[in-house]
Amino acid sequence: MASTALEPWQAAAPRRKRRSAERRQRGREVALRDLEAQPEVDCGVVLRRIREAGKDLLLSDFWSLALETVNSCLKKHLEQLKVPEGTLSEALGNLHLDSSPNESAAVTPGFIPGENPVPGTCCWKCVCYGIGNFATCVIARHQLTFLLLFLEKCQIPRRHCWVYDPLFSQLEIAVLKSLGVTVLSENEEGRRSVHGEPTIFYMPHCGTALYNNLLCSNWSVDALAKMLIIGNSFRGLEERLLARILQKNYAYIAKVLKGLEELELPETSQYTDIFNDTSIHWFPVQKLRRLPTDTWAFQEEPDYQDCEDLEIIRNKGRAPSAADQNLPWQGSCPQR
């Protein structure tokens, strides 16, 4: 169980710059040791471990504190989406964003709640990239568990959640399908348009290029205003990368920094290496409209030709530039 919780969320602070890289490396080392120690598993074993992780998460200080952050952000986003008058309060009320003692029912053997959202709730979609090899990696398994509980809390049916990782095993694909989520068959490289639908992107510890590609594919006030991103702190990226590198290699992230709000997930001792450097990002329309007028005219395809340590597996069916093919991609676990 989690020990004493640290401070609740606040805006990304410089301390992330000092601690993020060290923690992420330590997390990879722990995950690698766990991977090497795992015996061969089957679908039932993986599901049991997911249920156990869910029980631990529900009882942790991290979960209760994270719900406060989630609640704050989603309420603002619902208001921005202009839920019809008369249903906004109903929609907010139907978000199960409290932490009751009886929540352990959510991780009973079936563990597939939230399939029938309450009338009046916002019909968010959810897309998850780079969750990692959760069958063998403890970090990835806890991140998957957070996703499942998050879907339940937000009343998002699991069939409205699309999941992809280029290194999923056939076992992991079978487990995900049994859980009721939709497993994508193609590597989108993060290039998914929201197509006018409110969408939450869950991308813990993904490569920076995936976030940049996602922004590129939704580069308009209307599209960004319908998105939330749960993933690496954009403010942390700004602190860690030289300005010229950020602007050259990840131009869409650089251009949108003044058009977003970021709420960091809390840090607790139990989940230090699992949700560190993770924030919820959303894009207030007022901020987006205050960006320079030439912001939205920028439509260049990201070019990672001179990008060092690019963490993305390319889709060989696309036509990437010659320089960025077969580059390593890294998500939550060290085996990537």
Describe the structure.
With 336 residues, the protein is of the alpha/beta class. It has one domain. The protein is built from 12 helices and 7 strands. It has helices at residues 15-37, 43-58, 61-80, 88-94, 138-153, 170-179, 208-216, 221-225, 234-240, 243-249, 251-256, 285-289, and strands spanning 125-129, 161-164, 182-183, 199-203, 227-232, 261-264, 278-282. It has a 7-stranded mixed sheet with strand order 3-2-1-4-5-7-6. Strand 1 (125-129), helix 5 and strand 2 (161-164) form a beta-alpha-beta unit. Helix 2 (43-58) crosses helix 5. It starts with 14 loop residues before the first helix and ends in a 47-residue tail after the last helix.
Considering the chains and any ligands shown, give keywords for the structure.
12 helices; single chain; 9% strand; disordered N terminus
For the secondary structure, the number of strands is: 7
CA radius of gyration is 19 Å
Q: How big a fraction of the residues is strand? A: 5-15%
Helix content: 25-40%
The coarse silhouette is: globular
Question: What is the makeup of the main sheet?
Answer: 7 strands, mixed
| Terminal-residue CA separation | 29 Å
Q: How does the helix and strand content classify structurally?
A: alpha/beta
Task: Identify the strand order in the major beta sheet.
Answer: 3-2-1-4-5-7-6
Regions with little confidence, pLDDT below 50 for 5+ residues: 1-25, 27-39, 85-89, 99-120, 320-336
How many separate structural domains? 1
Helix count from the secondary structure assignment: 12
Mean pLDDT: 78
Order of helices and strands: HHHHEHEHEEHHEHHHEEH
